[in-house]
Specification:
about 425 residues, alpha/beta
Length: about 425
């Protein structure tokens, strides 16, 4: 049967985004918009807070991807309520709109998809694992591996992996972990390793004059050694270690300034930073829209991305690292985070911390002072950009998602 006798697969991407971080707006809408529309006709169902939904709607309209939002409800009871609502809405979409593929992002939307699969056994499933959620929750909340909630989430995870037609993961390690948790083992060819990616024509380096202008607009000394952190800040992102690093850097570069772009509470962050020895005058904490981020990132000398130890660390692909590198900003990160070790092996794109002891932080500071400032700065920035294009270019990510959908076949007319 020729391609002309097939119609695009009507796909419903389901996401539950309670945080204020614009993951759908900044990552998944651009990915879905770039899929081969002759094969895939995507729509999105998002459970979110109203302000997140408004940002998602603007992005969806801009990219011509239909978006349907429902209010996010927090807590365990809220998760149950959202799951029940999702089951009803998805069922209606299948009946009324001819949806043939369900694409849940992470585990809670996946629960609704598993229920719907009982009623619609021919529906195809692309499970976007997007991390190891049961382990993230266990590590963040101190649960035992025998905790009832953790074991229930692991059971759901195994069911999703087993019943999905394709499983998308961010790192090869995630595929190995998820396969080891199923019996009998899910075939390896069901897994697709797809890192996070950003548009390299939007996230790109700025000229020296543009970087200085952005700093002035922020009230930061244009000649400061500018350290950047982007994103939410919780214990798993090691804010104490970030502040220790910055204090050590200021001992070598007294004009260093720390810019944190986050939706987290400013007052508590400033209080914690000052308590750790960061002068308040050397710290800027602000919030910006996703659209405003590229020139702000490109204005930095280095970007930070730390992650606490744990099983879940192997499954992540920090979006901030993609943004930093594509903007030509070298990165200081710690080893064991996803497969970033391979990206940083050459040392030409940043520094990979082995530990967070004083000696390791001192070595990282020495690297930054010697390579990310002065005459060597532009060579490192070019290396960062090359690594960003090689690993995190949105076009490469879209091509890999296209392969996922090609594996499902086409919908015959």
């Amino acid at each position: 049967m020729t391609a002309s006798l097939h119609k695009p697969q009507k796909t419903l991407f389901i996401s539950r985004d309670g945080q204020h971080q614009p993951y759908l707006e900044s990552l998944f809408i651009p990915v879905l918009a770039g899929l081969d529309r002759s094969r895939v006709a995507p729509e999105i169902l998002e459970f979110c807070l109203p302000e997140v939904g408004r940002a998602s709607k603007r992005a969806a309209d801009r990219h011509d991807v239909p978006l349907h939002t429902r209010r996010y409800h927090g807590s365990i009871l809220g998760s149950i309520l959202d799951t029940l609502i999702a089951v009803v809405v998805i069922h209606r979409f299948i009946r009324a709109r001819g949806v043939t593929v369900l694409h849940p992002r992470s585990h809670v939307p996946g629960i609704a998809v598993l229920v719907v699969k009982i009623v619609h056994p021919t529906i195809r499933i692309v499970f976007d694992a997007d991390g190891l959620m049961p382990d993230e929750r266990r590590e963040a909340r101190g649960w035992s591996e025998r905790a009832v909630v953790y074991r229930a989430l692991r059971w759901i995870e195994a069911k999703l992996v087993t019943r999905a037609d394709a499983v998308v993961v961010r790192t090869p390690q995630t595929a190995e972990i998820l396969r080891s948790r199923t019996y009998p083992r899910v075939p390896a060819n069901r897994f697709y390793v797809i890192p996070n990616g950003k548009d390299s024509t939007t996230f790109m380096p700025s000229s020296s004059s543009a970087r200085m202008r952005v700093r002035r607009e922020l009230g930061i000394d244009p000649q400061a050694f500018l350290v950047l952190y982007v994103g939410s800040i919780g214990p798993n992102y090691l804010p104490r270690e970030m502040f220790r690093f910055f204090v050590a850097l200021r001992a070598r570069r007294p004009n260093a300034h720390f810019l944190m772009i986050t939706t987290d509470d400013r007052e508590s962050l400033v209080r914690d930073a000052v308590r750790a020895g960061v002068p308040e005058a050397a710290l800027t904490v602000t919030t910006r829209s996703h659209e405003a981020m590229p020139p702000l990132i490109a204005a930095a000398d280095i970007g930070l991305s730390f992650r606490q130890a744990g099983v879940s660390r192997a499954a992540v692909c920090p979006l901030k690292v993609a943004e930093y590198l594509l903007c030509g900003v070298p990165v200081v990160t710690n080893e064991g985070v996803g497969d970033l070790d391979a990206v940083f092996q050459s040392g030409a794109v940043g520094y990979l911390l082995r530990e967070f002891d004083d000696r390791s932080l001192t070595d990282a500071v020495a690297y930054c002072v010697e390579n990310c400032a002065g005459t060597g700065r532009e060579a490192v920035r070019r290396g960062a950009r090359r690594a960003g294009l090689a690993y995190f270019d949105l076009r490469r990510v879209q091509e890999r998602y296209d392969r996922v959908y090609r594996s499902l076949g086409s919908s015959a007319c």
